[in-house]
Amino acid sequence: MDKKNIKKVVLAYSGGLDTSIIIPWLKENYNNCEVIAVSGNVGQASELEGLEEKAIKTGASKIYIEDLTKEFLEDYVFPCVQAGAVYEEYLLGTAFARPPIAKRIAEIAIAEGADAICHGCTGKGNDQVRFELAIKAYAPDMPIIAPWREWDIKSREEEIAYAEAHNVPLKINRETNYSKDKNIWHLSHEGLDLEDPMNEPLYNKEGFLEMGVSPEMAPDKPTYVTIHFEKGIPTAIDGVEMGAVELVTKLNELGGANGIGLLDIVENRLVGMKCRGVYETPGGAILYKAHNVLETICLDKETAHYKALVAQKLAELVYNAQWYTPLVKAILAFVKSTQETVTGDVKLKLYKGNMINAGVCSPFSLYDPEIATFDEDEVYNQADSAGFINLYGLPIKVMAKMKEKNGLEK
Q1: What is the C-alpha separation between 99 and 332, in angstroms, rounded?
Q2: For FRET with 399, which of 106, 289, 337, 382 sits at 20 to 30 Å CA-CA?
Q3: What are phi and psi of 208, to 5 degrees?
Q4: Are 112 and 37 a contacting pair, CB within 8 Å?
């Protein structure tokens, strides 16, 4: 990529520390190029406030703020809830969000006739891969600028110093400089004291948690919630039908108030290192739990067990930036086929960080109380089990007799 040919750049813009200083940096290092900022709204709420004014003031020629929240949930999150895709306990909040944002950025870059796309992802993280692979899927020939792989800045401290020197307004300071990523599905925290896994997260410190409270601070009285699913997709809470955005927002409120969805893990990043992250996913945790409970009565054993294997693979693919690939498309098609009868209601009790099953029903339930009962029944002949056990255990019996015949240890 020849810098002198770069006259217009589309920047993936969040208004956070990295992308805030990239606008003046691009102008300094790429011939005072035009910078068009693009922000993908995936439900990060207050983080969007003042974004347009800030982008223009720091040198952008214009800004697109694209509302992708509904698409994000319906096309990326919910299919993975149906699958039960979880990566090392992590509910994939950031990994879900990057593909739709990068896709829209690529579309705008093409429409604007941009010479390059720029992002603020570090060279240590997963997001650089997620952004760039998604861009390659929709703008395969578009040059990509990644300042963290070019500039002399080596730390977030130096970023703050650069921002102060260039009069770039920031919402953070050196004491509250956690690396965060927020959307309607989750909030992640990394850096500072969290870099030492011996340090307990400051859950009860004012301002640390943003989507809820710690279990200790949650009410002493439980909250009950009933979620309705249609073919594996959540459609109602407590009998009230809701769209995806309203439904997740409501569950975030209920879960957050009860200390639900906190996760502290050291995960295996795509780029080869281990990284400690603290996640808030209150509504998402409730949905994964409720969907799993419903599947226990709606899926047959073989499908459920095989689907669990597929879910693990899908989680790895999503985490590892492979969303726009034939394998993900094929897996999601399989998952969708398993959800034809995953319809019904799940009642959960939320109490101080716990999600406790409180009832489940479905018109397609495979659970038959008359067969499962310990009391007398008319449909199950217990004597039938003798022949089943003899056949099922025949290989073990044959092996034991062979060992006995040859004096081998059993």
Answers
A1: 15
A2: 382
A3: -70, -60
A4: no
Neighbours of 165 (CB within 10 A): 10
Closest residue by Cα to residue 34 from 51, 59, 53: 59
Give the position of tokens 């949905």: 287
> Does the pLDDT at position 375 exceed 80?
no
The CB-based long-range contact list for 247-251 (8 Å cut-off, 24+ gap) reads 248/43, 248/73, 248/184, 248/185, 248/283, 248/284, 248/287, 249/43, 249/184, 249/283, 250/283, 251/225, 251/227, 251/282, 251/283, 251/284, 251/286, 251/287
Strand partners, 223: 350
Whether the model clears a pTM of 0.85, i.e. scores above it, the answer is yes
Cβ proximity of 294 and 361 under 8 Å: no
Q: Which of 194, 327, 321, 199 is nearest to 269 (CA)?
A: 321
Contact 141, 116 (CB under 8 A): no
Length reported for the chain: 410
Confidence of residue 369 (pLDDT cuts 50, 70, 90): confident
H-state helical runs in 211-354: 244-257, 282-298, 301-319, 326-338
C-beta atoms surrounding 48 within 10 Å? 15
Write out the two tokens for 190: 């990394």
Cβ-in-10-Å burial (0-12, 13-18, 19+) of 207 comes to exposed
Judged against a pLDDT cut of 80, whether residue 177 lies above it is answered with: no
Sign, CA dihedral 14-20-25-26, equals positive
Q: What is the pLDDT of residues 325-340, one digit of tens each?
A: 999 999 999 999 999 9
Question: Residue 295 corresponds to which amino acid?
Answer: E
CA atoms of 217 and 117, how far apart (whole Å): 44
Q: What is the mean pLDDT of residues 349-378?
A: 91
- Checking if the pLDDT of 271 tops 70, the result is yes
Q: Rounded distance, CA 215 to CA 352, Å?
A: 4
How many other CB atoms are there within 10 angstroms of residue 347's CB atom? 17
The tokens describing 380, both together, are: 């199950």
Is residue 117 within a helix (H) or strand (E), and if so which, with residue range?
A: strand 116-118
Catalytic positions are: 18, 98, 127, 179
- H or E segment to which residue 229 belongs: strand 223-230
For residues 63 and 34, give the distance between their C-alpha atoms in angstroms, rounded to a whole number: 12
Contact 105, 10 (CB under 8 A): yes
